[in-house]
Protein 1
Amino acid sequence: MLDDLFDPLDAEVYAHIRDIDDGRALGVRETTPVILVSVIKLFIAWEFRCRVAEGTIDPATPIRVTAADRLGGTGTAGFRHDAHIAVGDLAGLMMEVSDNTAADVVVRHMGAGGLRSLPARLGLTGTRLIGSPRAILEELARDLDVNDLEALAPVLASGSVSTAELRGTSVWDPQRTNASTPVDLTRFLEHVWNGPPEVARDVRGWMRRQLTGRLARLAPSEVVAHGRSGSLPGWLNEVAVWEWPDGRRHAIAVFVRTSRPNFREVERAMSLAALRLTEKLSAGNA
């Protein structure tokens, strides 16, 4: 159903779509484990916002973000100076600009135990949550014999590490890193959309403001899209919910493993795949 979009790109797709309201679903390799990369931030956001609703975390609590916390990248991860930021705003930066340092700080503030137990509490049997971005990147640095995280970023940016080498690391292995399946991910999105209203409202709002969405690039302009993407050399991922003017709500997960640095072409194919999934699901309801 989707392979014709990705085979010419030397890529393999794992995808699933679910109608949030009536439960109809379809997919391609939807039960195959996939690595989450920054899609982990959606789970972090949900657990954090649930803690706020329970009253165990005050989102206004100021957190000092220092050089020791920074990983490099967007948001606080790329700050040049120390800053005090409310933990609730760090959660927003984590989701909206995929701030890795913000994700680490939020997890540290609330504790990683709740994040790790979240899949079991929600019945997501194909999902494993190990830790925040720093924990995963530290494993990658060890696998590549890089001294520390400061040295890792230029190594990855230089292209000196091949896709084949990356595939041998723990970050690429769903058994050793944050991982899920497309079917679990759409089930989780269904839970988010139907969850406690005040919690769901904030998580949906963060997803709506994501700056680097992929799936909605070719979506009709009347679609309201919410997303959370992730990437690693050789992987491009996104989960999303599309809300249609007629009331349909589609939870979509598209994960792609590619052996070539053809990310622009793959991203376009991902959006085409999302369109095809929505059309096929809707046709089944005609």
Protein 2
Amino acid sequence: MSARARAARVQGTVRIVGAGLLGASIGHALTALGVDVALDDTSPAQLRLAVDYGAGRRAEADDEPSLVVVAVPPDVTSDVIERELARFPQAVVTDVASVKLEPLRALRDRGVDLTHYIGSHPLAGRERGGAISARADIFIGRPWVVCRDDETSTGDLAVVEALALDLGATPIEMSPEEHDRAVALVSHVPQLVASLLAGRFVEAPDGSLSLAGQGVRDTTRIAASAPELWVQILGANSAPVVDVLDELAADLATVADALRSPDAPGARRAVADTIRRGNEGVERLPGKHGQNRRFEQVVVMVDDTPGQLGRLFGELGELDVNVEDLRLEHSPGAQFGLAEISVVPRAVRRAVEGLQARGWKIASTTND
């Protein structure tokens, strides 16, 4: 057993119900730590695929898990939680659904004993689902919300937090209400906004879309998500989502009214205030490692040939410049790309002068 495997906090068998993206990803991460992972799924094909890719073994009738992770679609989450609590009364049961209040209400209405149930939600994922898209590293550095209540024992809470820590995530305690309001703002409404914007492209002229740069790609990246899953998520968290959408609609109406008469008194200020408020909001977003720390950007022109990006990273390392973040942009038809490198402010001059001395072309910096 490797040193990493000996460091696993979760003990015993972990049963994962649902071998899709999140379930299989959890399985991969725990299996890499040497944890016994038993997978179950209503889809035989999905289960076979997850097992073949190494996310765990098939669950057996005589398994006695210490922890059950429910990773199924939102419309069946409460049903599966109820079943698993009844089948394994000594195990801690958690789920990873992106809505927490609706399943909890359903279980309470049925009179289910929730002593060993703790809802949780890793803020991680990918645009594409399924076991084939699963990755062990998608939880690293991501928040993992844990929704305890007055009945939650310290021991059971420790088990769920150990799961999050083993997967490299950061446990955060919230009430189900707090969680659902938060994800409405930072996850569910952004999904709708991205989808609505990308929907404008369907009938757009090809010539217009040929002008698309990295900004619009960043803004619409999550529009590739699965509609059938998001119908369930948005339906289960409809009230908080509608609250944010109503406020957003009012903001959009204000800007639209201002632009209908851009020379009217106060119109330009309304637009400027909208952009400024966006600046302030972006500044509040946590940066690398959760820090509210801002970086400067250096944009480097990189030839579209093998090995150039690796050479750039290597030479930045020689210059003792740490790459805090990276974004790549390719212009259609161009034989080069733009690498936007985020660095700490004090490293900008060293990066620019050092790279230029090595023959790199600097397209721009934050201060340009």
Protein 3
Amino acid sequence: MFANKLLTCSALLIMLFLLSSTVFSQKLIGLPRVGKNVSDLFLEQANPLTSSSSTISTSSTTTEKPITTRSTSTITPRSTTPSTESPSTTAPVISTTIAPQPYPQPSIGAWNTSCIMLQMAAQLNFTYEAREGNFTTGLDNIPSNASVEDAECKSQTTQFIHLIWGPETSKQSLIMYFNKSNDTTVLSFMQIHLALLPEDFPDAKENQTVQLITRSDGAFKTPENMSYHCTRVQKINMTETLDAEQLIGWISVSHVQVEAFRRANDTGFSVGHDCDSSETSDVVPIAVGIALAALILVVLISYLCARRRSTSRGYMSF
């Protein structure tokens, strides 16, 4: 009898223990466990790994927040490497104008006759009429390959040399006259005949001829039996006629050496008389001497005045 009561009490205690443990576990988990009998609860309590895994899985499925993904179709990542492409800029178009080339310098030519030797480089600067009726300036060089057309060597007072160049249909010419008087030779007259060719002067009026004339008593002046020599550029003014006052051009000559009235047995230029070594007038040395004498006199007077003042001051000190 006592044993039966003991077994009954033991069974009641076991059932109470199981019920209390089930309630405790449900409170810990926070989820209702519906439809499970006592044996299942007992097995779950006996296998803690299965219980915890199921509990964690249930918790994760009920508490996990939904994951939203952001669309990257409209977001362009910024490049961190610098761009090597230069910005497309339209450069301004600069129009360049080619400057006109300067007219070539004349070359040195040499021409010889039995009585005249001539060496020079010459350029003509003249005025001519254009097609429109206005006047313009032209340049032309006397070529170094011009030939001697004629010369006068018989006279002992006037001699000339005649140069020609250009095409056969339109010859250009230069005539230079030299006079000798009082043991001095000088260029007395010069004439240039220049036909304006279309290939050289396309804007010139058709069939136009320029004639330049000059009369000078001081150009290329040199003592007798000497040659005239001048390296620097010299300008000789020229007009259209001998009596005209209007200047229509000039001839620029350089590297000149000329000798007229040469003897027949001479083989080259005589001693040169340079254009920059002209004889100095007597007025210049006289003026310089007077200036030096006046300067010496002023210095002497100043010295005497200073000495007199110093002497008078010495007496006053006593």
